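Subject: design request, 217 residues
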């Protein structure tokens, strides 16, 4: 689909048809698109928990109780649901792991280039940690870039999606032992195909107008 048409027709799906599943190869393509998301200094501070089976989706839905119950059926009836997690910290070991990956992928022509990348990336992390004092927010910003990329890609692929911040963070973090893994849940995305009963599919989109959101110099 054309990019503008995709931006205008993709929407936050409120009800899924549980009978319809995303073909395996197409879902794997979406995961690969997630893996290729851009991030500041290629810090990639994310981890994605992927649920396809009913049992896995039920584990996620267990974190959608109380105030968040309105999101439960979206997860249960989706084809796939992904928990977008963000690291709680950036360790020296993780920075070294990234650097090794860069090297494996052929990014460095010599040791000087490698050291340059090491210094730049570490410099940014220390800047956000010690000066701006918002390393967690900076990391989570990167995770949300991956969210945007996935939502748009799903639209292009003709797959419906729902980003969800409406979930119990404590319950989800506990269910998947995220703290022990140095992670926290940031946002959940359900993917699949809309149900005919989805009221939101028929509503017009609403956005602020051009003159409000753009300053053209
Ligand atoms: C980060 C984020 C969190 C959201 N959380 C929820 C949610 O918990 N439940 C829900 O039904 N919709 C959720 N939405 C959907 C938004 O309400 C929706 O994207 C917005 O109203 C714009 O409408 P559209 O996506 O249909 O164009 C969320 C969207 C974003 C981007």
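Subject: RE: design request

Done. Sequence follows.
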């Amino acid at each position: 689909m054309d990019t503008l048409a995709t931006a205008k027709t993709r929407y936050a799906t409120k009800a899924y048809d549980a009978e319809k599943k995303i073909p395996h190869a197409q879902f794997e393509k979406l995961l690969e698109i997630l893996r290729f998301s851009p991030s500041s200094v290629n810090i990639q501070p994310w981890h994605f928990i992927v649920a396809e089976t009913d049992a896995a989706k039920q584990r996620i839905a267990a974190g959608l109780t109380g105030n968040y119950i309105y999101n439960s059926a979206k997860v249960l009836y989706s084809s796939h649901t992904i928990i977008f997690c963000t690291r709680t910290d950036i360790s020296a070991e993780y920075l070294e792991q990234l650097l090794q990956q860069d090297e494996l992928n052929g990014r460095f022509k010599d040791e000087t280039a490698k050291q340059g990348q090491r210094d730049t990336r570490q410099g940014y992390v220390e800047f956000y940690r010690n000066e701006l004092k918002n390393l967690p927010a900076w990391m989570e910003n990167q995770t949300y870039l991956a969210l945007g990329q996935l939502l748009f890609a799903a639209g292009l692929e003709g797959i419906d999606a729902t980003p969800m911040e409406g979930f119990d963070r404590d319950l989800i973090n506990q269910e998947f032992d995220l703290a022990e893994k140095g992670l926290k849940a940031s946002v959940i995305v359900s993917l699949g195909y809309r149900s005919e009963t989805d009221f939101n599919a028929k509503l017009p989109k609403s956005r602020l107008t051009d003159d409000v959101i753009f300053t053209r110099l």
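Residues 135-156 form the longest helix (22 residues).
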